[in-house]
Design brief:
The chain has 444 residues and is α/β, with parallel strands linked by helices. The chain has three domains: 3-86, SRP54, nucleotide-binding domain (Four Helix Bundle (Hemerythrin (Met), subunit A)); 100-286, 3-Layer(aba) Sandwich (Rossmann fold), CATH 3.40.50; 303-443, Orthogonal Bundle (434 Repressor (Amino-terminal Domain)). It has helices at residues 3-13, 24-40, 45-60, 70-86, 112-127, 143-154, 167-181, 198-211, 226-239, 256-265, 286-293, 299-308, 312-323, 329-341, 345-350, 355-358, 370-377, 381-385, 392-402, 406-427, 432-443, and strands at 100-105, 131-136, 158-159, 185-190, 215-221, 243-247, 269-273, 281-283. An eight-stranded mixed sheet has the order 3-2-4-1-5-6-7-8, with helices on both faces. Strand 5 (215-221), helix 9 (226-239) and strand 6 form a beta-alpha-beta unit. It is flat, with a radius of gyration of 25 Å. The protein starts with a helix and ends with a helix. 39% of the residues are buried. The model is unreliable at 430-444 (pLDDT under 50).
């Protein structure tokens, strides 16, 4: 995400490279390039101009420290302004009521149904909620079936009324059902249309009046840019929603919607959708997003993502095996599966400072580990548990069984032994300082 904007901003700041001090001329030139970058990112001219005017005023009114170059100072000012533009800090959802009632709103195709399930899954796992999904989209073919399938996938119940075409009644009855059966969170999925229309607005307004939600979340596709912002304004005028879920952020290389929704409707982006998996939803942190836009990475989100999949019991077992140099291909396969649970591999690597630009043109997707898994699964249990016994004839059989060349098998086995050596060094304390630094930064 934000690839184009990041590149343009980097080029803009190069204007100040080598400059001894900030002047009207070099700041104006830099801000001209920044404004162009924002316009290309589908930010409206008004907001782009206000943003660059603010950065320029602060840059010219600030004394540059001797230890800081003008370009570094400009990056810092731009970073602070980006955070302010996107809302300053993460905003929580209203969960104090029992049950807390959430209403999902948005156009058809924005991802309402999927993100209703994602949100239920997240709040159950991270906030210990007992959610109920309510299928209130009675118009889109298979919408109810889709929500039921997603509910089964994440093990969250779905309230439906087969045959009913009254979404207001379904929502009210769903809330009553939740109260009766002890659910402390109700997420009501609603119908969307291909465009904003009076009938849809009237209907969702009636649902709001009937169930009195504690949280109304507007779901919008980030890839629609300024259209997303305009749609947000139309919905907010009718519903006065509480926050935004910005979907398909993993496919949005421009970022105009993320940068301007808060400024236009004065409502925070609360969550972003970053992929197809049920776990691919994150709390929106303006400071972390600003870091990514400016090419600084996002190590805190990386550490938090890793910690979410961290199994303390498995880690303890692994540490014992490492101490005895007994790390085997079963453990190697388990580590791959842990990484896959964390989400999109390229997206994760992009969170590491300095990696985003390096891997930008590489084709890394969720199938990247398939060949490795095929090779390991073609080994016998004895070979996986005792990698040292894998000789030439065994390698040939493994290659044939996995559909890979013998060179691929040799490469994987070499990588395995290199990994085992490195992990033993970590276990012996030679890399503990690095891990401690990462986890400390992740908690800040």
């Amino acid at each position: 995400m934000f690839e184009s904007l990041s590149d343009r901003l980097e080029r803009a700041f190069k204007v100040l490279k080598g400059q001894g001090h900030i002047t009207d001329i070099n700041v104006a030139e830099t801000m001209k390039e920044v404004r162009k970058a924002l316009l290309d990112a589908d930010v409206s001219y008004k907001i782009a101009k206000e943003f660059t005017d603010s950065v320029k005023a602060k840059a010219l009114g600030m004394n540059v420290l001797k230890a800081v170059s003008p370009s570094q100072m400009m990056v810092k000012i731009t970073y602070d302004e980006l955070i302010a533009l996107m809302g300053n800090s993460a905003t929580d959802v209203a969960l104090k009521a029992n049950p807390a009632i959430f209403l999902m709103a948005g156009l058809q195709g924005s991802g309402k149904t999927t993100h209703a399930a994602k949100l239920a899954n997240m709040l159950r796992n991270k906030r210990n909620r007992r959610p109920l999904l309510v299928a209130g989209d009675v118009y889109r073919p298979a919408a109810i079936d889709q929500l039921k399938v997603l509910g089964e996938q994440i093990n969250v119940p779905v309230y439906t009324e087969e045959g009913s075409k009254d979404p207001v009644r379904i929502a009210k009855n769903g809330v009553a059902f939740a109260k009766e059966h002890g659910y402390d969170l109700v997420i009501v999925d609603t119908a969307g249309r291909l465009a904003v229309d009076e009938e849809m607005m009237e209907e969702i307004g009636n649902i709001k009046e009937a169930v009195q939600p504690h949280e109304i979340l507007f779901v919008v596709d980030a890839m629609t840019g300024q259209d997303a912002v305009n749609t947000a304004k139309a919905f907010n005028d009718k519903l006065d929603f509480d926050g935004v879920i910005l979907t398909k952020m993993d496919g949005d290389t421009r970022g105009g919607a993320a940068l301007t929704i808060k400024a236009v409707v004065n409502k925070p982006i609360k969550f972003i959708g970053t992929g197809e998996k049920m776990e691919a939803i994150d709390v929106f942190h303006p400071d972390r997003m600003a870091e990514r836009i400016l090419g600084m990475g996002d190590i805190r989100s990386f550490v938090e993502t890793a910690q979410a999949q961290f199994d303390a019991e498995e880690a303890a077992k692994l540490q014992k095996k490492l101490a005895k140099n007994e790390f085997d291909f079963n453990d190697f396969l388990n580590q791959i599966q842990q990484i896959k649970k964390m989400g999109n591999v390229k997206e994760l690597m992009g969170m590491i400072p300095g990696m985003g630009k390096a891997i930008r043109d590489l084709d890394i997707d969720d199938t990247a580990f398939k060949g490795v898994e095929a090779i390991i699964l073609s080994m016998t249990p004895e070979e996986r548990a005792n990698p040292d016994i894998i000789n030439g004839s065994r390698k040939k059989r493994i290659a044939l069984g996995s559909g890979n060349d013998i060179q691929e098998v040799n490469r994987l086995i070499k990588q395995f032994f290199d990994t085992r050596k490195m992990m033993k060094m970590v276990n012996n304390g030679k890399a503990k300082n690095l891990m401690q630094a990462l986890s400390t930064r992740g908690r800040r």
